[in-house]
Each structure stands twice: as structure tokens, then as C-alpha cells.
Amino acid sequence: MVFRHSMDFRPFLSPAFFTNTGSTMKRFDTALAALCVSVVFLFGCGPSAKKDSAAKPSGAAPATNADRDSGSKPAGGPGGGAPAAGDQVGQLIEKLKDASPAVRAEAAYQLGELGEAAKPAIESLVALAADDDAQVRAAAARAVLKIRPGREVTRPIVKKLLADSDEAVRMRFLHTLADLGKEVVPNLIEALKDDELAKYACIVLAEIGPEAADAAPALIERLKSEKRPEVRQQLIMALGAVESPKSVPDLIAIVEDKTNESRIPAAFALGRLGPSAKEAAAALGKGMDDADPVLKMVCAWASVKVNPDDQASKEKAIGLLVEGLSSDNPLAQKAAMRALADLRPKAPGALPAIKRILEGANREVAAEALEILASLGAPAGEQLTETLQKPEL
Fold first, then answer.
1. Does residue 104 contact residue 133 with C-beta atoms inside 8 Å?
2. What is the DSSP string of 240-254?
3. % of the chain at pLDDT higher than 70
């Protein structure tokens, strides 16, 4: 799965950009992974999934005769008739362990069709949401949505799975949850009400993006009462990602408040909103004159995004970003590089600064600079060719 943020200046999502305090936060991807297992138990809290949301698995490798013999047909009940619901659930749970992904996916689908009668299968289905087969994961997650077991049933299961799983397994949970898209948004809105889960719900809502726009009112409401800086930062990032103009006034107020620890993510969120946040141009313009070097870079980038037709402001912003390439602050320098790579401006003054970066000893920063060179096109071609000949890069 490719993170949707990756095309939208995702490096600014690094927690290091969010605060001036230097406090540590969990890595972004780790937090994303943790959310999956934290929110799975909320599947039962929202409205019922639509009938077509649990579409029968398709596209997997066709089941072989051996697959079918292994149990694609439920065994009959007494006298050869249809099995009792309990017997059928037990048989389907066994099929969830089958070696064939086609059989596992079909079994998960059938359990979902049984609805609440399939509650005994919840532990197996939650575990299957981390299966190494994408179709099996999707079928298992949708089955849980249809069974609607409730938090009290799945909370201990999910906590145990989280404790026993490695990062790869947790990431597969994330992929499953994010791929559900809009249909899981009501459950994530419910998660915003939970102090323990609110931060993680924000991260997945941000990953879903504009399809999660229905969550904007709940995000704004939570932002008004939330006191924890880390959670406020994630709320702000989610507001930018779901692209709701309703959040613009609140985000402007944060950028203008010099005592607020969330000014950087608020400026970034406004930039993600683009021209729909044009009224933020003045606040972002003031931010470009701020003493915080990282905030200056983010506001410069955001001002171009929200008001691309203002040439005077654009020239000032690009000038600041070029200056930022030579900043002594590594975060400001990286922010400037990412901003220029995203904006792709005609900024010949950037080339000398980039050349100096490439000649430095920091390979990570040099790699970032290479991306800018590639984005600047023909003017940087000679420098890019020369740099790529260096074995260390």
C-alpha cells in the first residue's frame, strides 16, 4: 500500500516538525500501525455496514478441487440437511486456518453473512485481519464490520494481538483499515471520543483523506477541548488531510497564537487545503517573518499553496525557502528542501545552495537535495549528472 500522504509533502508529517519543545513522540509509521489494532474493536460501534460493503471475495486464485474438498461447502446437519448455525460457525472457523487464501477469504465472507451468530469467530477474524494475503485481510475486516461484536468482546483480543505481534503484522492491520476507506469513518469518529484512541483515529482519518470529510465536525469539536499537544497535533493534521474548509478559522487562530505549540502543523494543514484556505494568506504571511526557522519554511510553502496567484507573496516565499537551504537548523533546511521539491519553482538561486549541501558529509540531507535537483528539471541537469557519478550517493 502506498501512503496517500506520500504525494502530499508527507515529510512535513514527521513529528519533529510539529513542536518547538523538542519532546519526543512515537514514529509516525509506528503510530499508524498501532491504530489498526487499537481501532479494530470499534467496528461494532458504528452503524451497520451496508450490504454491499462485504462483497464476496473476488480476484484471488481460484480454489482447486483440493481446496473445495477441504471445506468450501459446509457439512450438512443431522439427516444431511443444513447445519445448525453453531456447527456452521465452527466449520467456518476451521476453514479460516486453511492453507489456501481463497478458502480463508471465502470462509471469512460467509462468517460475515451470518452476522451476530458468528460472534464466536471474532478472535479468529481479528487475527486474520493481519493475514499475509490482502484479500483475506479485507474479507476478515468486513466480516467483523457485519458481525458487530462490540468493544467488550474484541478489546481484550486486540490488546493481546498487539502485545504478541511484530511491526509487520501491525502494519498489515493498518493497510486493512485504511483500505476500508469511507465505510470505517463512522467508527473512527466514535474513536475520537475515546481519550486513549483519539490520537490514533486522527492518524487513520488523515490517511483516508478527503473520503473522511464527514469526520471534520468531530475533529474540530475534539480540537476545542483537547489539551494534550501530541493529540492536538494529530487532530490538526487530520483536518488538513480530510480537506474540510470548515477548519480554516480554527487553524488560522492557531497559527496566529505565538504561545501555541501546534503552529507548524496548523500551517501545514492550511497549505494542504490549498486555495480553499485563501483567507489564511495574511496569517501565513506573518508566519514567514516569525523567529522560528521551521515555522517560516512551512508558512512560506503554505502561502504559495493557498494563494498561488499572488506573485509578490510567492517571490518572497521562494526567496525564504532558498535561504532556508543554508540554514544551520537541520529541520528548517529539510523543510526548505521538501517545500522546493513540492512547489517546483523557477529558483536558480537554489542551485548553489544545493551544491553545497551535496558536497557536505550528511548523506541523508544530500539524498533530500537530490530530490530537489530532480524536481527543478533541466537547469539542474548538469549538477544532477555530476552528483550521481559520486559512488557514495
1. yes
2. HHHT-GGGHHHHHHH
3. 58
d(CA 141, CA 173): 9
Q: How many beta carbons lie within 10 A of that of residue 157, not counting itself?
A: 19
pLDDT tens-digit series, residues 286-308: 999 999 999 999 999 999 999 99
Q: Where are the beta strands (DSSP E) in the chain?
A: none
Cβ of 96: how many Cβ atoms within 10 Å? Answer: 23
pTM summary value = 0.64
Burial (CB count <10 Å: 0-12, 13-18, 19+), residue 93:
middle
C-alpha 204/C-alpha 311 separation (Å) is 36
Per-residue confidence at 103, pLDDT binned at 50, 70, 90?
Answer: very high
Average pLDDT, the chain: 73
| pLDDT(111) > 90 | yes
The DSSP 8-state label assigned to residue 61 in this structure reads P
Arithmetic mean of pLDDT, 301-330: 91
Domains of the chain: 85-165 (1.25.10.10), 173-243 (no CATH)
- 391 CB neighbour count, 10 Å cutoff: 5
pLDDT tens digits for range 335-372:
988 888 888 776 656 666 666 766 665 666 666 666 66
Distance CA 366, CA 357 (A): 6
Instruction: For the chain, count helices (H), then strands (E).
Output: 21, 0
- Amino acid code (one letter) for 139: A
Burial zone of 196 (CB within 10 Å; 0-12 exposed, 13-18 middle, 19+ buried)? exposed
Looking up cell 455496514 gives 49
CA atoms within 13 A on the CB side of 228: 11
| Exposed/middle/buried for residue 289 (C-beta within 10 Å: 0-12, 13-18, 19+) | exposed
Spatial distance between the Cα atoms of 316 and 184, rounded to a whole number of angstroms? 42
Q: What angle do CA 293, 297, 300 make, to 5 degrees?
A: 135
Within 10 Å of residue 308's Cβ, how many Cβ atoms?
14
Give the C-alpha separation, 44 to 70, whole Å. 31
